[in-house]
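Section 5: illustrative case.
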């Protein structure tokens, strides 16, 4: 079974040397669910926890061997991911902000999977005053960047993919209907979260920040700065 986790946004924290996983800061959406699941192109009816959770909790994304215990490692970022993801220096010429990791509702920890870019196109960002959020009148259009990130898995018979938080599984492939060949797990976003990603969760060094013109694209990769 092939499973693809689709991230429409997220702050991809630069990994430490030798780190075998990728961590992604995420915020809950205002809606009733943070997750959409499709089995062979049809909306899944399985019951599962639909909110990612708050409190800066870690959600482990794990591809388990047949024994149900051993986690496949490491995660494998593709060249397209490293090239296409939005970097902070695409927006900031000086005073590049650092991630404030404690601000995120949760942190997704991808221990395995093939990470790839998708929906690669330029994006327009508007500049805003840090003090009162009003537009400065300036804007920037980026190079072509990934507006979506895919993390792909091929599950052999008996293997499991799960998103596991402190309260248990948020979602698991064990919920998938028998005979399903492809599954898409989409982690949702909302344009109202733009200020959370681009103002609140960044340690700004200058007196302005940038907002995308719609839902926030994934930001920063292995070489994108802290």
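Designed sequence:
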């Amino acid at each position: 079974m092939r499973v693809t986790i689709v991230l429409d946004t997220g702050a991809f924290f630069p990994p430490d040397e030798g780190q075998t996983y990728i961590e992604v800061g995420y915020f809950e959406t205002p809606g009733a669910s943070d997750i959409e699941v499709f089995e062979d192109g049809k909306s899944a009816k399985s019951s599962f926890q639909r909110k990612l959770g708050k409190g800066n909790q870690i959600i482990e994304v794990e591809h388990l061997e047949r024994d149900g215990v051993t986690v496949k490692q490491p995660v494998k970022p593709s060249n397209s991911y490293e090239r296409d993801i939005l970097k902070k220096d695409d927006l900031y010429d000086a005073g590049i902000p650092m991630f404030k990791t404690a601000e995120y509702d949760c942190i997704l920890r991808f221990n395995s999977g093939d990470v790839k870019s998708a929906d690669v196109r330029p994006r327009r960002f508007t500049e805003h005053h840090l003090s009162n959020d009003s537009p400065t009148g300036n804007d920037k259009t980026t190079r072509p960047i990934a507006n979506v990130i895919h993390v792909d898995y091929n599950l052999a018979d008996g293997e499991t993919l799960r998103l596991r938080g402190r309260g248990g599984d948020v979602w698991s492939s064990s919920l998938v209907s028998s005979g399903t060949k492809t599954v898409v797990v989409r982690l949702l976003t909302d344009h109202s979260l733009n200020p959370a990603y681009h103002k609140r969760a960044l340690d700004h060094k200058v007196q302005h920040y940038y907002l995308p013109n719609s839902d926030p694209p994934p930001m920063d990769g292995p070489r994108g700065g802290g």
